[in-house]
Amino acid sequence: MPEQTLTIADNRTGESYTLPIENGTVRAMDLRQIKIDADDFGLMTYDPALMNTASTRSAITFIDGDKGILEYRGYPIEQLAETCSFLQVAYLILFGELPSEKQLAAWTYDITHHTFVHENIKTLMQAFRYDAHPMGMFISTVAALSTFYPEANEVNDVENRLVQIKRLIAKVPTIAAYTFRHNRGLRYVYPDNDLSYTGNFLNMMFKMTETKYTANRALERALDVLFILHADHEQNCSTNAMRSIGSSRVDPYSATAGAAAALYGPLHGGANEEVLKMLSRIENTRNIPEFIQRVKNGEGKLMGFGHRVYKNYDPRARIIKRVADDVFEVTGRNRLLDIALELERIALEDEYFISRKLYPNVDFYSGIIYQAMGLPVAMFPVMFAIPRTLGWLAQWQEMITDSEQKITRPRQIFVGHPRRDLPT
Ligand code: SDX
Questions:
Q1: Do 231 and 345 share a structural domain?
Q2: Is 307 in the active site?
Q3: What backbone phi and psi angles, to 5 degrees, belong to 76?
Q4: Are residues 236 and 293 in the same domain?
Q5: What is the largest CA-CA distance in the chain?
Q6: Which atom of ligand 1 has the smallest separation from the CA of 238?
Q7: CATH number at residue 122
Q8: What CATH number is attached to the domain comprising 275?
Q9: For the chain, percent helix, then strand, then coil, each to nearest 5?
Q10: Using a 6 Å cutoff on CB, does residue 361 contact ligand 1?
Q11: Strand partners, 61
C-alpha cells in the first residue's frame, strides 16, 4: 500500500514538505508551514465558491455525482422514497437510524404537537403586503420565531436543541401555509392533529368551508416523496450557510432563516420557480429549438439543468418524474410537462449540454407537480424549504457537536490599495 502522503517541493526555497493524505484530502492548515522566511504567514489555498474544498466531515448524506448516487445515512434515496414516510426519513437523517415503531410513534406525536405557532405570528404576517413573496415572508417569520424562544440560544444543551429542532420541523409547514393563505386573502387554517405531516400541510393550505379537511391520499403520498427527496443534500449552498451562521453559536431559528435566504436564490432552491417561468415563456414545443439556441448563445440558462456535484442524471429528478404521473392521475396532466419532456429529450442529445454534463436536476420537474397541485409558482421555493429545514437542522447539529469545528472565518487574498494617507 503506497504511503498516504504528499511531498511538496517549494522551488522558492528548495525545501520539501511531506503532508499526510486523509480521506483524499490534505489539511489546508498543513500548508501554513510552507514559508519563504520566518515572517511569512505561510501558504493558504485559494478556492472561490469552495469548488474543491471539504469544509467538514459528515455522516448524514452521501452523493456520487458521476454515478448519480444519493444516500441518506447509507440508505439509497430510491428505497427511502419508495417505502418510507417523510417523518421516518427525518428521524433517520437526524438520529442516524430508522425509528422503531415505538420511536416513530413518539416522534410523530412530538412533531404533531408542535405545529401551532404563537398567535402573534399571525399578526406579524398581517404586516406583509398582500402580494409579498411567500419566501420573503417565510424567511422573516422563521427568524421571528427566535424571539418567541429566547432559550434556543443555549445551543450546547442537548435537550434544548432537540426541542427547538422539533419545533422548527413542526412549524415550517404551518408558516408556509400561512404565507399562501396570506397571499390569497384567506383566513389561516389551524393544524389538525388527526392528519399526517403532509396531510396536515394540505389541510392548512386548501381547507375552505368543509368542517374537516380530507387530503387526497395520492397527493399526500406524492408530497411525502417530494419532501423525502428534498430533505438533505450534503454541503449545498444553503446548508453551508446554515453551518456558517450556526458556527457563531446563534440560535437555530436565526440560522435556519439565513439558510432559507440562501435557498431562495434562483441558482439554488429558487430554480424550481424559474423553471416554471421558463416553461411558460417557451409556451409551446415548437418554440424549443429557438430557446435552446439562445441558451447556447449564452443568452440565458436552461433552468432546472446542471449541478455542481451531479455530472449525471440527478437521481431525485428520475423519481420526481414518476411522482408526476401519480399526481397527474388526480389533477389532470400539466401541459407544461410536454414542453419539459421535449426540452429534456433535446438537451440530452445536444453536444452543448452533453459536453458540460448538464442533466435535469431536482428542480426541473418539481415545479410542474406543485403547479398541478394548485400551488402558485412563488410557493415553489417554500416547498423546497419545508423539508430542507430538517436537513439544515441535522447538519447544524452535526456541526455543533463536531469538536473540530470552530466559528467559520475564511482568509482572503488582499488585492486592494496598499496603505495610503488621507490628503492633508
Ligand atoms: C439545487 O448543491 C446542491 O446540492 C443544490 C441542490 C440541493 O439539493 O441542495 O441540488 C438544489 O440548487 C439544484 C440546482 C438548481 N439550479 C438550477 O437549476 C439553475 C440552473 N443551473 C445552473 O445555474 C448551474 O448548473 C448550477 C448553479 C446548478 C451549477 O453551476 P456550476 O457548478 O457553478 O457550473 P457552472 O455555472 O460553472 O457551469 C459550467 C458550464 C458553464 O458553461 P461555460 O461557461 O463553461 O461555457 O455549464 C454551463 C455554464 O454556463 N451551464 C449551463 C447551465 N448550468 C451550467 N448552461 C445552460 N443552462 C444551465 N442550466
A1: no
A2: yes
A3: -65, 140
A4: no
A5: 81
A6: 9
A7: 1.10.580.10
A8: 1.10.230.10
A9: 55, 5, 40
A10: yes
A11: 72
- pLDDT tens, 32-78? 999 999 999 999 999 999 999 999 999 999 999 999 999 999 999 99
Examine residue 342 and state whether it is found in any structural domain, yes or no: yes
Grid coordinates representing 336 are 407544461
Euclidean distance between the first and the last CA atom of the chain, given in angstroms as a whole number: 67
Of 222, 231, 191, nearest to 87 by C-alpha is 231
| In a shared domain, residues 110 and 35 | no
Q: Quick check: is 113 catalytic?
A: no
Q: For ligand 1, is residue 295 a contact (CB within 6 Å)?
A: yes
Q: Does the residue 417 lie in any domain?
A: no
Query: What predicted TM-score, i.e. pTM, was given to this entire model?
Result: 0.95
Look at the block and give the residue holding cell 414516510. 85
Q: Which of 30, 118, 268, 326 is catalytic?
A: 268
> Does residue 418 belong to any structural domain of this protein?
no
By most ligand atoms within 8 Å of CB, the mutation choice from 267, 352, 355 for ligand 1 is: 267
Question: Ligand 1: which of 310, 346, 358, 389 to mutate, judged by most atoms within 8 Å of the beta carbon?
Answer: 358
Closest of 290, 268, 243 to residue 402, by C-alpha? 243
Q: Is 171 in the pocket of ligand 1 (CB under 6 A)?
A: no
Same-domain check for residues 261 and 278: no
- Contact (Cβ atoms closer than 8 angstroms) between residue 209 and residue 186: no
In a domain, 64, yes or no: no
CA atoms within 13 Å, Cβ hemisphere of 329: 13
Domain count, the chain: 3
Residue 79 and residue 143 share a domain: yes
Do both 135 and 277 map to the same domain? no
Ligand 1 centroid–CA 414 distance in Å is: 28
pLDDT tens, position by position, for the chain (424 residues)? 679 999 999 999 999 999 999 999 999 999 999 999 999 999 999 999 999 999 999 999 999 999 999 999 999 999 999 999 999 999 999 999 999 999 999 999 999 999 999 999 999 999 999 999 999 999 999 999 999 999 999 999 999 999 999 999 999 999 999 999 999 999 999 999 999 999 999 999 999 999 999 999 999 999 999 999 999 999 999 999 999 999 999 999 999 999 999 999 999 999 999 999 999 999 999 999 999 999 999 999 999 999 999 998 899 999 998 999 999 999 998 889 999 999 999 999 999 999 999 999 989 999 999 999 999 999 999 999 999 999 999 999 999 999 999 999 999 999 999 999 999 9
Quick one: 24 and 107 in the same domain?
no
Choose the residue to mutate in 60, 279, 308 for probing ligand 1, maximizing ligand atoms within 8 Å of C-beta: 308
- Residue whose entry in the numeric block shows the C-alpha cell 492548515: 29
Q: Which three cell numbers stand for residue 188?
A: 389561516
Same domain flag for 229 and 294: no
Q: Which domain holds residue 152?
A: 74-265+376-400
